[in-house]
Here is the input.
Amino acid sequence: DAGVIQSPRHEVTEMGQEVTLRCKPISGHNSLFWYRQTMMRGLELLIYFNNNVPIDDSGMPEDRFSAKMPNASFSTLKIQPSEPRDSAVYFCASSRDRGLIKEFFGPGTRLTVL
Amino acid sequence: AQKVTQAQTEISVVEKEDVTLDCVYETRDTTYYLFWYKQPPSGELVFLIRRNSFDEQNEISGRYSWNFQKSTSSFNFTITASQVVDSAVYFCALSDTSGNTPLVFGKGTRLSVIA
Here is the structure.
């Protein structure tokens, strides 16, 4: 079975540029989570969706961040404009309610904003 | 609110030593799940265990064992006879039992096993 797929795996961009991170959850999973990992703050939840609907976006740092889930098999996290402090590893995870009750994590996208 | 505390930021042991990673949690839920994840230097998050709050039996898997004590809100992880390949950051996490809410992670403990 394919796990959670994230692209790109690495992204280097310049301050002010738009960045789009992509995630394909595991087929049949109906919850999708975006986490960010930094040295200072550890693993923090940015936003999560249930059945393609955003449930809690209180972790999104500011208006520069936006996330969408247009269908059950695809989600994007966009940063516009990007700033150096956005440099982090961004993980996508998916799960199925009342299923295995664990989150399957993607490999992460390492973002560097110069 | 849910909270997970991993007080040990970094631990260094010599190969073959036993090591215990501490995890203390806070939750108002009567049922919940506790997790441990491993993050090796390659960066991916590897699931190790999920424990239901109503099951307080200790669990052993090879060199790994977990001690869940509801009375002290702790879910500690012990590696017996540590190996260099165990070097990683280990995260403890907590969630409710619905399966569709996020995990709350501790800050992680960086374990270095020295040959």
About this structure: The mean pLDDT of chain A is 92.
